[in-house]
Amino acid sequence: MSTEQPESQPDPPEMRRAEVARPVVRERAEPESSVAVAEATGHTVSMRDLNVHYGRNHAVKDVSIDFAGNEVTALIGPSGCGKSTVLRAINRMHDETPGARVEGEILLDGADIYASDVDVTAVRRVIGMVFQKPNPFPTMSVYENVAAGLRLSGTKSRGRLDEIVEASLRGAGLWDEVSARLNAPGVSLSGGQQQRLCIARAIANEPEVILMDEPCSALDPIATLRIEELINELKKSYTIIIVTHNMQQAARVADTTAFMLLGDLVEHNPTGKIFSNPYDSRTEEYVTGKFG
């Protein structure tokens, strides 16, 4: 037991601070109920004059916005307005896009994640991503889908893996549905279950922020409701930023909503204000369906 402990325990806070060059790291909380709830630490994401270019296409223009900790922020706007581009900039996905260029600052708890001394892998470890289409690893079981990132980061103890896999599946509201078939292929689950499996995979890696890019667009209404309920539960532990075309969904799950148009941030306000008394007339025209 003692020989495995150094590998199976989470990284010390000082080590993870060195990896990501930021001052705050949340330790994993043990599950207290059917949902694993971590201490609310309020990790914040701030953008300052963010610009994203794809070659000559200026996709995002001078966006400055603060995403509050332990809240859900929805990014809304017509297709091609830059909202998914903003989301992907937050965990440096544009690093993998030929011709893409990111300018400005993105700060996690006050530290610039684009600084030259920042480990990109460490950034993606603390800023998880859930995509539009459920994407469980097709050759892996339910268990291995959740454990894959843990194994890559050095966790070898089967007991520790079992503990984190169960806590993550509980946190994603999926444990009761899959506990008897952890060895079944992840792709054998329903679409809604697959998306929650992807959320479990994300939270297994101890993120502080979860990004969701149209997480319900491929799901039926019942599965969508489950994901929305899960989002409301997860914000107790994580800062969540969600891109959605569904105005009703934004109204249901988001604490604040940001409206984007043609690469510009038009307005960012509490969700109730965005949908009832927006500051900008373009916001009102969009949320009332006059264009989109």
Write the layout of secondary structure elements.
Blueprint: H1 5-8, H2 13-20, E1 45-54, E2 57-67, E3 72-76, H3 83-90, E4 100-108, E5 111-112, H4 120-126, E6 127-130, H5 142-152, H6 158-171, H7 175-178, H8 191-203, E7 209-213, H9 221-234, E8 239-243, H10 247-253, E9 256-261, E10 264-270, H11 271-276, H12 281-287
Parallel strand pairs: 3-8, 3-9, 6-7, 7-8
Antiparallel strand pairs: 1-2, 1-4, 4-5, 9-10
Helix pairs in contact: 5-6, 5-8, 6-8, 8-9
SSE-based structural type = alpha/beta
Report strand %.
Answer: 15-25%
User: Judging from the principal axes of the Cα atoms, what is the shape?
Assistant: globular
CATH architectural category of one domain:
3-Layer(aba) Sandwich
Oligomer: single chain
Distance between the termini: 59 Å
> Percent helix among the residues?
25-40%
User: Helical element count?
Assistant: 12
N-to-C order of helices and strands: HHEEEHEEHEHHHHEHEHEEHH
> In CATH, what is the homologous superfamily of one domain?
P-loop containing nucleotide triphosphate hydrolases
Largest sheet: 6 strands, mixed
Question: What's the β-strand tally?
Answer: 10
* CATH domain topology of one domain: Rossmann fold
What is the average of the pLDDT values? 87
Taking pLDDT < 50 over at least 5 consecutive residues as the criterion, the unreliable ranges are 1-40
Main-sheet strand order equals 6-7-8-3-9-10
